[in-house]
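[Meeting: bench + compute handoff]

Bench side (C.D.) handed over the final construct sequence. Compute side (W.E.) agreed to return the predicted structure before the next meeting so the bench team could plan truncations. Sequence as handed over:
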Amino acid sequence: MSDHDAAPDYFRDWRAIRALTDPSVFAAAGYGGRLELGLRPALLVIDSTYRFAGVRGVSQATSMETYPLSSGPSAWSALTVIRKLIVRFRKLGLPVIYSAAPLEKTAPLSGLWARKSATSLTELPRGNEIVDEIAPGTRETIIRKTKPSVFHGTPLLDLLIGAGIDSLVMTGGTTSGCVRASAVDAFSLNYPVFVVEDGVFDRAALSHAVSLFDLDQKYAEVLSSEALEERLRGRATA
């Protein structure tokens, strides 16, 4: 049984996390403001690689036998959503940008990962390749990164400025790790961030739910793929 399978209901639904908090704290702080999706958003597909997604069609425990950091079924459920969003953004002529670790990981580039994760330098079959189901197009960019945030030490900001991007839609994994770190950095750069709740994944249900709640309160707007589609509807295709 995976962590997600065993999780209480309030771990599965990030909105239910509010019931575990003191509502007056967030209300008094004025958190939870809504954001506006710009005219030219970009879709970020964060670390949707075999290392983090794992083996399709098996339990999380079985997937972890090959890919110790994988999220298993929760990742593949999110990848179905991500695939649809990629098609949508391509039709609208809006950028789709991927991130992943370097194809060959080395100790100097990995920094403290080797101390915090015993499997971070383990070579895995196609580990740092984007999963085939959402493979980048020939003209789409993969940002190779060595730290949690897709902004850290990468040319992403220059790419966004050059493309006239005014807001970011984030998908991929993991919710509590690279998605969260990237969202906070984007917020710090004054980009409105939209995290697609059914398009992100995490190996731990609690981390996933709490991270979505916290992101929605402070740094981003968390919304479903259906709600995002409503905001995109009516835009002309490329």
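W.E. noted at the follow-up: The longest helix spans residues 73-92. C.D. will use this when planning the next construct.
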